[in-house]
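Sorry, explain these tokens?

___
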Amino acid sequence: MNKPMILRWHFWLACLLQALLGPAAAEDFLPPEQAFRFSARMTDAATAEIRFRVAPGYYLYRDKFVVAADGAAAGKPEIPRGTVKFDPNFEKDVETLRDQVRIRVPVQADGPFTLRVTSQGCSDKGLCYPPMESTAPLSPAVVAAASTESAEAIEAPPTELGRIEASLASGRLMAIVPLFLLLGLGLSFTPCVLPMVPILSFIIAGEGAHTSRRRGFTLALAYSLGMALVYTALGVAAGLLGEGLAATLQSPLILGGFALLMAAMALSMFDVYQLQMPAAVQLALTRLSERQRGGKLAGVFAMGAISALIVGPCVAAPLAGALVYLSQTRDVFIGGSALFAMAVGMSVPLLVVGLSAGTLLPRAGAWMQAVKVFFGVLMLALALWMVASLLPAWLLMAGWGALGVGYGAFLLRARTLGWKARALGVVFAALGAVQLAGMATGGRDAWAPLAHLQGERMPKPEFTRVRSVAELDAAVAAAGSQPVMVDFYADWCVSCIEMEKFTFTDPAVRAELDRMLLLQADVTANSADDRALLKRFGLFGPPGIIFYDASGQELRRERVIGFQPPRSFVDTLRRVR
């Protein structure tokens, strides 16, 4: 029996064993692309360097490497010596390579070419992978700045996304669930989740002045469970379909519909009209509630499910890691468990609001009317925030200004609320007036309405727009010896706007960005080209920042998903250089 036949026989035997042992056995093994991470670059005009980062518990066979080049002549590869061990798969002593593997290959090329590397590896647990072919586009004109990297650069600390992917790849729920709970707790304080707090508060306030802590917590639990289940379902669907679900949920029609719903709820809080069901329905519900209060909980559960549509479009590193894992492995149990754990973590502030309902909400008197108005203002603010990407900058500033001045005037006129409320009214009126003044004087930035009056500011970096995969590849190929940064942006992406306003304008960040070629893919429209660009990198929506080194190879470990503050982003940029 020849060697290829032996390889195929062992491979299909391994597959049969995995099928017989069930999903639990399959979870113990990494996909080959993760077990043996491949990259390549030109160290000089006549030498290519191949690298494999081998995961712990895995190894590559030294004698299985085959190197070829399309468009160039490849010489004999210089493969480092390995460790000799008896391999039961081949029933003989073999030489194996682990951890960091570097192979130097002499090449003769007059222009760009494609390097093809065939390799084969196994797991210490007994699974032998079939031969894997890896390719890399290279060019003798694009040579790395130095022929070698420092050990510190090779062993760079894992990024947040790298830790998340490693945790998911382990398949151990005891490690995955606590990690994603903590990550969800961190996400609970972002603009993606905070809008749900006034919605839940509005629901609890509707219970009346004597809501107990137990009742408040039960309502919050029902709301959070609805949000968590729908959030998990949306994530699983996005991971399996691989489509721009975030962009779909941010279409003007959907955003406008939810904004109108929030505005309608707000007007009812101002007593413009009463939201009431037909008398017959109210009577039936009243009779039902006398027997049980489950109907109310079902409604709160449904409201939480609807709120998940607000949370879903916010793509951060934990969500991106789970979606990539789902798309690659199709493992709904592990990926769904991670998403559900993250949603539970995001629900912690909501549960705190519910648990404290008995003490934070006023009992009776004029405060109750003030609370209704407060929740109405929060609803209007939420509606305005949802359609912020659809409005002209001046109109958005006018909306925030009117909301601030209007609520401030209400608090100033409410004499029965005391001096603290009037002081708060002054603050709201002043904030609203600043927005209106900025709009009237030509300002168009709601985050910094008067910045245009303060002289010169650090300008935003200038990006070159790429609209398709072909344009991106051409721009990267033409970058020369410059590292490249590709920013995936959308008008409706909150974290994208935060990066533009607070991170890209930081002086230290700008100093690093000035040394790079800056490309930007605006995927606001979610067109076919936009989806192709996202799919190229396994992204499910913005924000996402991709880096290429000076040889045109993507630096997968340095990806930035979600908002990153200036100090952390500077560290990322320096590692890239």
In short: The longest strand covers residues 36-44. DSSP finds 24 helices and 15 strands in the chain. Confidence is low (pLDDT under 50) at residues 1-27, 144-157, 288-295. Residues 222 and 297 are 6 Å apart (CA to CA).
